[in-house]
Amino acid sequence: MSAETIREFEALEAQAQKLLAGFIAGGHEAVAPALIQPADIYLDVIGETLRARTYVFQDPNGVELCLRPDLTVPTCLLHLERAFNDGSTAKYCYNGTAFRFQPADADRAHPREFRQLGIETFGGEDREQVEAETVALIIEGLREAGLADFNLRIGDLGILQAVMDGADMPQRWRQKLMHQFWRPDAFRAELERLANRPSAAADALDPELRKRIEGAPPADVQNILADYLEAQNIEMVGSRSLNEIAESLVLILEDARAEPLAPETADLITKYIGVNARAKAAGARLKDLMREHNVNISDALDTYQRRLALLKDAGVDVAKANFSAEFARSLEYYTGFVFEIITPTLSDKSPVAGGGRYDSVLRSCGAKEAIPAAGAAIHTERLLAAVVGAKALNGEAT
Amino acid sequence: MSERLQIALPSKGRLMEQAIGIFADGGVIVQKTGNARGYRGEIVDMPDVDVIFVSASEIAAYLQSGRAHLGVTGQDLIQERMSDWNERVSILKPLGFGFADVVVAVPKCWVDVSTIADIDEIASRFRDRNARWFRVATKYINLSRAYFAKNGFADYRIVESLGATEGTPMAGTADFIVDITTTGNTLKANGLKILDDGVILKSQACLVASNEAEWSPKLRQFQNEIMQKLGV
């Protein structure tokens, strides 16, 4: 969007004031983080993928900076900069422009500059309570802004973790699968590899090297490797140490010796990922699925049910909410509960609001210990478009 | 603007000689005009055609903006410079020279690594130990990102490198690289090996038409004449 009419501008401003007033009344302190942010942090927190969509530049001193691609990370940094940060619960709200590169064929629901209006809660030991309050406050705001027709979608990475923990496999494989969850194709490939050929990496080793380290005590692998490299005239290049490479070889051989993932286990994981149902029915379906496979995830399911109850208490219509096990897949920094608000006038790919729990972000931003964090943001242009109707989205209202 | 066809050719070295040679083989004789070191040229018997000599890496930009109608440049540069190259330009003909592969190469001493998936596997352990992501040195930032994304690898940082990229792992400024190679000898000399699935693009010099340039029927006719002679 290169320009907007003064009418659009004023409508957005009025909407923002109304929403912010609601969040402030809900106990969130209004903050205004800087537009220009250090680029490094974004790389560490969100990775190279979002960097490809971030406007990065160097200042005259050669420092890498960026136009913020969201407001959550700047709010985390602002929180950590505060001297009185003593670990008690802090609640913030904000409204400001975020910037993301969009491909040439992007539509008006994906502008390169958009205003994000959101809330964050840092600290707060009762996670489900904070999550329920977050959803309730966002939905209340959307209603106040005039949005009547919308759907709530929820997901829960805590259940995924519990399913993995309950499934029979080496701990290392759980980490591998969790790591790949964000990338459906890679996840499927990893699952297949563990089920059919966990020795794939060992099979790719030089047979000579494999023969020498197979059966050797792990403590000897580093020396065997050093001899092998010398005999092969291979120089040590780069920053990975001999020790790091030796450790990795030990794991590769452990994988090769391990029993392949049982077909029932692979089946359980695949079935879990396929669960997509009304929030209440999903709880029951998950219970059945786990009983069938004799896996106990009752703690995670209790958390899920408790959250639903708290959402209901907070006035959220959970009967209509939808649960999707696969839902968090496009949002890499979330660590637990996730949600999105979809409206019928905009596509599923253009939610008007979304958020969830991201317990590791503050740590990545420099906090000395993990601080629980949950929040959500409203895409204000989309909200206005959804409220005004499809007309405004097509530019006909002006 | 009068109706003149602008052709961009590499301005120096083997690439320039080979481009002019390929044109000459088809009877399209390119001559420099004015100073022999100048950057302007013409085609014998085609008075409405201008040849502009620019550095190979600039040719993609000329085609992208439409300043040149036709150009000779490597596929690697076309794909690196334009995220939407399929729409901006049409590749008319691979010309059979300027062969180079864009590859992912890692230190040879990484005996535990032979695919991108293997790098992904060790990346989080590396980060835990060294408190930073893997650094990838390259001048092919967009090609690298797209390739890693396609292969589900995200735990890296790109370090832009405009020269001597293959030396960066040895110098310690990067952990592995994405670069072009023709014989693989330079990689070997720097203690690097190509991943089994590490060939991102097999590139060669191509005759490319800009879809962004202003094309009139007359200019299309010049293009057809040239293409006919070159046997496209």
For the largest beta-sheet of chain A, the strand count, sense and barrel status come to: 9 strands, mixed
Q: Indicate the percent of residues in helices of chain B.
A: 25-40%
Task: Please give the radius of gyration of chain A in angstroms.
Answer: 24 Å
Q: Give, in spatial order, the strands making up the sheet with the most strands of chain A.
A: 1-5-6-12-11-10-7-9-8
Fold and architecture overview:
The complex is a heterodimer of chains A (398) and B (232). Helix content of chain A is 48%, strand content 16%. Chain A has 18 helices and 12 strands. In chain A, the strands form 2 sheets. A 9-stranded mixed β-sheet of chain A has the order 1-5-6-12-11-10-7-9-8, with helices on both faces. Chain A has a 3-stranded antiparallel β-sheet with strand order 2-4-3. In chain A, strand 3 and strand 4 (64-67) form a beta hairpin. In chain A, helix 6 runs antiparallel to helix 7 and helix 14 runs antiparallel to helix 15 (298-313). The radius of gyration of chain A is 24 Å and the shape is globular. Chain A starts with 5 loop residues before the first helix and ends in a 5-residue tail after the last helix. Mean pLDDT of chain A is 90; it is low at 390-394. With 232 residues, chain B is of the alpha/beta class. Chain B has a 7-stranded mixed β-sheet, with helices on both faces. The model of chain B has no long low-confidence stretch (mean pLDDT 92). Chains A and B meet through helix 7, helix 8, helix 11 and helix 12 of A and helix 5, helix 6 and strand 9 of B.
